[in-house]
């Protein structure tokens, strides 16, 4: 091998190894649309078009090989060590484009309001859906039964109302369901909270 060949090889290795953790284009577009659809959010300074979305620490994790986002977390819990965020508005439809997502978590976000969007059913790989202590309201949607991979569903501490849809019984892989501290009329929840 000539020296030039070796240099080219090294460059190629460097290029491929560094580009492998770059955010997938489709996911980046979806995340930027996600950010833009809130009335206000504290993400404006960190979620920038010019940066790799896999480096949006504390909120986003990507698969090293595919660059697809598999983990998305938002919390404003002052007792948890992670990055705190504020989100004002409802869960945007663009979340449905993050089709490799396995974990989606929102917690301690009182200004996160509105219903659980139907686009969530496009997340066929979702293992954990956690929306806790937010202002999210409306019914526990029957369409959640389409999330056939789901292991954990935690919807505690919101303003959800109505009955618990029987269709959730078809989520055979579910090992945890939390619906405590809502305004539900019946079902597998804790005794009525005295705080309400
Ligand atoms: C979602 O994906 C579709 C194609 O599947 C694309 O046309 C649309 O622009 C995407 N939306 C966002 C917000 O990324
Ligand atoms: C959310 O945004 C709306 C519109 O800008 C504003 O009226 C409201 O006070 C905000 N709520 C919170 C909790 O920040």
UniProtKB/TrEMBL annotation:
Signal sequence coordinates: 1-20
Subcellular location: Cell envelope
InterPro entries: Leu-rich_rpt, LRR_dom_sf, LRR_N_plant-typ, PGIP
Major location (coarse): other
Limits of the Leucine-rich repeat-containing N-terminal plant-type domain: 24-63
Pfam families: LRR_1 (PF00560), LRRNT_2 (PF08263)
Keywords: Glycoprotein, Leucine-rich repeat, Repeat, Signal
Origin: domain of life: Eukaryota
Protein family: Belongs to the polygalacturonase-inhibiting protein family.
Name used for this protein in its record: Polygalacturonase inhibitor-like
């Amino acid at each position: 091998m000539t020296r030039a060949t070796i240099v080219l090889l090294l460059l190629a290795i460097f290029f491929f190894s560094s580009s492998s953790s770059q955010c997938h284009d489709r996911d980046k577009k979806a995340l930027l649309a996600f950010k833009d659809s809130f009335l206000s959010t504290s993400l404006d300074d960190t979620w920038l078009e010019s940066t790799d979305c896999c480096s949006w620490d504390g909120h986003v994790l990507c698969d090293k090989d595919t660059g697809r986002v598999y983990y998305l977390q938002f919390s404003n819990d002052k007792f948890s060590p992670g990055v705190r965020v504020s989100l004002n508005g409802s869960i945007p439809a663009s979340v449905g484009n993050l089709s490799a997502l396995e974990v989606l978590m929102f917690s301690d976000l009182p200004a996160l309001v509105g219903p659980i969007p139907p686009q969530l059913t496009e997340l066929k790989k979702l293992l954990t859906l956690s929306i806790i202590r937010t202002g999210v309201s409306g019914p526990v949607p029957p369409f959640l039964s389409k999330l056939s991979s789901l292991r954990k569903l935690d919807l505690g501490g919101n303003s959800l109302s109505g009955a618990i849809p029987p269709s959730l019984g078809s989520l055979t892989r579910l090992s945890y369901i939390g619906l405590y501290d809502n305004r539900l009329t019946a079902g597998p929840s804790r005794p009525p909270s005295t705080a309400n």
